[in-house]
Fold this protein.
Amino acid sequence: MHKGRCILLIVSGGIAAYKTLDLIRRLREKGITIRCILTEAGARFVSPLSLAALSGAPVYQDLFSLQDETEMGHIRLAREVNIVAVVPATADILAKMAHGLADDLASTTLLATNKPVLVAPAMNMHMWSHPATQSNIAVLERRGVQCVGPTCGALACGEEGEGRMAEVSDLLATLDTLLSTSTHTHQIEMAMTGRRALVTSGPTYEAIDPVRYISNRSSGRQGHAIAASLARHGARVTLVSGPTLLSDPVGVHTIHVESAGEMLAACEDVLPVDVAVCAAAVADWRAASVSQQKVKKRGDVKTLLLVKNPDILALLSQPGPRRPVLVVGFAAETESLLDNACRKRTAKGCDWIVANDVANNQVFSSAYNTVHLITENSVTCLRTMTKVEIAESLTERIAAAIRKKRVVGSPENLTQPP
Ligand code: C5P
């Protein structure tokens, strides 16, 4: 079922290392390719020859092996497999992982990988329950490392307690789940890789004079999270951001603008793109004329003449050769959320609208959001999630929509960079 997938097994020093031999055999029966790294201590418990014979591939042992580096450098090894599994994981390797040490091939590879990591701790019960080990495990789990076991039972040292490595069947079950998830992520990456995406985020500032401006409460968190998520899944993302306190997302080309006019000009420069996500809270109005000097405080009443700003979402949605394959807008509403959002989708001509209720004013600076996704044929209510999770969910749906388009069109229809 996982044919063609690859697991990197890191075998560290512990009596349970012999169980990895059975694990390798069972994984290969499923068509999974295995690559092994054997630590110096691991080699005292299991021979490189056994691992090589069962995995059907050379075993990597030395960080400075010219031959290994020529065959497959350790960075490639760390990044080209689907999962990295440390079986067994000693207290020492867990400590190195938690603290980012990189003094041998195993720890260096673990620091370099961007793939899901599983650890199967195996050690004496006192070493396992020691606060240092427990704190290291807590750090690793917070970072998303999947820990399987240890279990209770007779330990190699003669004592009995929690420290036995998990059974091979439990490791197989967890690896199975991780591989399914990674297959899903891989499919998203396949659909998004090389695609060009434009995301707008944050508020705009519409100047009244050199000191004052009109703006809104948008923090930019949702838009920035979407840009980061699309980029993580392989898209080439340009983020056009109004003024925010956020740092530029990693791997995203960010253009900083202030006003709606500047945002529109920047977006038009970025076209053509495959996907446009307009998450910015663009000011609807701007001052009809911007005073060159600070406006004086004379009089009790002041009239400010406003003119309408261009609607970037509506302009990007206009039919034509430069229209993105998919245009997604946002609708922040304080009343009749779904009705207003559905109307907005049609009025602006975009494909999807992400609607969120901002009546209680808590969405803007919050890390959480509750949204409804409105498409031509459906309204999907997503549960309350962090803005990062909403971004992931949206990326997943965008990938599915784009993948379908690729089937309808041809690969040549992919937009080319200007
Ligand atoms: O009309 P309203 O401002 O509620 O529409 C919200 C959606 O339209 C958001 O996606 C926002 O980014 C976009 N928008 C825009 N240009 C404007 C106003 C809104 O792109 N001038």
About this structure: The first strand starts at residue 6 and ends at 11. The domain at 6-189 is CATH 3.40.50.1950 (Rossmann fold). Residues 168-192 form the longest helix (25 residues). Residues 200, 260, 278, 280, 282, 284, 309, 311-313, 329-331, 344 surround cytidine-5'-monophosphate (CB under 6 Å).
